[in-house]
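ping. complex inputs:
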Amino acid sequence: MNIWDSLILNPMINALLYIYDFLGPTLGLAGAFGLAIIVFTILIRVITLPLTYKQQQSTQKMQELQKDKEYIKIQEKYKGDRQKLQEEQMKLYKKLGINPFAGCVPTIIQLPVIFGLYGAIIRSLADSPTPLLEFSKHIYTSVSSTIIPLNSQFLWMDLGQPERFAIPALEGLPVVGDGLPVLAVIVIITSYLQTKLTTPPQPGAQGAGMTQMMGIYMPLLLGWFAYTLAAGLALYFVVSNVLAIGQALLMKRFRSEPSPKPKKSEGSGRAHLKGKSDGKAKGKKNPPGKQARGKGS
Amino acid sequence: MHPKLAVPLSIVGTFLLSACAGAGFRTASSWPGLSSDGETVYLAYDQAVYAVNANNGDLRWSYPEEPESGRTFYAPPAVSEHGTLYVGDFANEIVALKTSNGAVEWGPIQLGKGGGRIVGGPTVAGNLLLVPSGDGRLYARDTSDGSAVWAFPPEFDEPLEHPIWSAPVVEGERVFLTSMDHNVYAIDLFQGRQLWIADRDRGGAIADSPVLADNLLLAGTLGQELIALDNARGRVAWVFNAGDWIWGSPVVGDGVAYFGDLAGQLHAVKVSNGAEIWNVTLPGRISASPALSEDRIFVAAESGTLIAREISTNRELWNVPLDGELQTDPLLVGDAVIVATNGGEPLLCAFDIENGTELWSFTPGGSEKRCRSS
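pong. complex structure:
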């Protein structure tokens, strides 16, 4: 048994099995594996909440930074000298207590979750002898073996197969004859919204272009995964995206509510930067953008 | 996500997930299906069915002439006394071939609406061919032309909740069927009506065929149990708890049932009351049914070792390590025990049951490789 299996894959498989056992055989709910994926995704979201909170905090700080006068000044001043511009930006980040890469860590942590979950779903829904025998090697002895094989049906989907919503009227037509990829479309839409809400705008034409590309590329990529891979993974993407969108919106509201004069916030500066950066900025003798302190975003 | 990192991460992600998908985690597959009429060994594996001389391992014929995309064979073929071989594939089709030369007698015929696959071998009962399908139905077809006779459950009804992976067993006018839906059924041979369903709490799924012994029906379950049912009504006579999943069917000799489990234990249990006589731990999981020849039992361990043991003394006689995994039930033909390897080479190996000496081997396309792995 390798490290990946022991630390990531097996705990995920068995967590799914425990949840499935509780929801299906114990409570008698239909579509228990789909529900297990939803519950599992919520659990993963809760466990990684401190990280995603930090990521979104960092994103918001980066967004607010775009309006900072000193930041804008640096951009203009070193427009022609990229290396100097980066140096100055880094100095400013340091001064304000911003880690521009803080938002990446949660994403990196989520990658093994996605890969692990995909492996767990695919293995759990083994539908022929060899994969089922292979799957048996991953199951903890404490899991009831009477739940095997799992029922892969959830709503109109077979969670182990790419999702298609069959419409009899479309039968026989090219591309959509097998049904419409409803979940893949939802994945694209929710991924787009999530990327929009959580990706900070980048300075300069290059950065803005990259952000724009990300806003299109990521949803399409995840949509492609949802279109071609197991529906269980697409379900995970949808639930995860919806939760992330909800979390981002809540955080936005939470951060904007305490602001006493939100209308005057247009064009304001570093005062938007909260938490650690606020503290640091307050300690400075004459920090740039000081005049905007207290104005919400 | 920081855009600068998101692009390379998503490229890596695309690559990894695509690799995962392409790695065949969900590729439907099984192990070689093996059967024999005493003179020829029939092997269904991957994209072909091979007829191999049981005396020397020479290839007699293979089917189809050219591999067909999307058509794979793993179910043990059924041989009729009239010289016809019935082969099921993973496209849920059945075909009848002449045992003499592999020529098609009829078929391939699609069973049901498609989507299933034939994992357990068909069973011939008079002029009926009983084909278990992964689509959750048992199909009865006319052996002469493959025409439909009945299906269980009937095709206008819902199929079983999970696939059927085991060959049905016929006694008189009754068909006994086990299923991955955790149930055991008795069905009327001529009409396909359900006679009874095993009267037991939801136990484990049943992957292999039941075995009849002394009016009892024995079946191993993935719920770690060997169950014995009264074959008249399906009531539980006794239950034996093993340490792990029981995948293969038991074999019965002199009132004793022998079977292995995935913990690698070989059990000997009294058929009359389910009391364990002995057990022995072998190297590797056991998913195949053992083979019995008088005082000898042959066990294929998944790790790739074929083991011969003497029952009366409960000691090992010989063992042969092979290349590849062993999940196919060993087959006794004359004085040879024949095994098919999964993912190894040679594909078929025949050993002298007395001493484990290699008699012959078979690899599609030919190979000089010996069976015994170093």
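Chain A has one domain: 3-292.
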